[in-house]
Amino acid sequence: MPGVQHIALTVTDVDRSVPWYERVLGFTTESRTDHADGPSTVRLRGLGVTLTLVQYPDGSHAPFDECRPGLDHLVFSVADRTWPDRLAEYGVAHTDTPDGVALRDPDGIRLVLAVTPVTA
Questions:
Q1: How far is CA 80 from the centre of its chain?
Q2: Euclidean distance between CA atoms 87 and 102, whole angstroms
Q3: C-alpha R_g of the chain
Q4: For 72-87, how does the pLDDT look when each residue is reduced to its tens digit (9 = 90+)?
Q5: Is the dihedral of CA 54, 114, 24, 91 positive or negative?
Q6: What angle do CA 90, 88, 117 make, to 5 degrees?
Q7: Handedness of CA 72, 78, 84, 85 (dihedral sign)
Q8: Across-strand partners of 96?
Q9: How is 12-70 classified by DSSP, letter by letter?
Q10: What domains are there in the chain, each with its CATH number?
Q11: pTM for the model
């Protein structure tokens, strides 16, 4: 079936980002590959998607900027509106949006948790 196979995000430190995605958003690590003189990649599963976090050894440590060409933000569909409580529990700054909540990961990548109504 056609669709998105996975999403890969470049991060500055997988050892910082992976626990954040697991703890805050409930992802589970499926695999990790560390290449000698190459990138470290960690594949996570959660919120109905496979997410790969990639850290390049000589990658830029410039802060994320959605105004540059590339990713603007990533939206995850969620079934309920309890996320603000969970984010507050972990001290994650967030703002309400008409559809859910917006937040940033440890590298400043903008994420949105959009409430998708459950249909019968």
A1: 18
A2: 10
A3: 15
A4: 899 999 988 888 999 9
A5: positive
A6: 110
A7: negative
A8: 101
A9: S-HHHHHHHHHHHH--EEEEEEE-TTS-EEEEEEETTEEEEEEE-TT---PPP-TTSSS
A10: 7-115 (3.10.180.10)
A11: 0.89
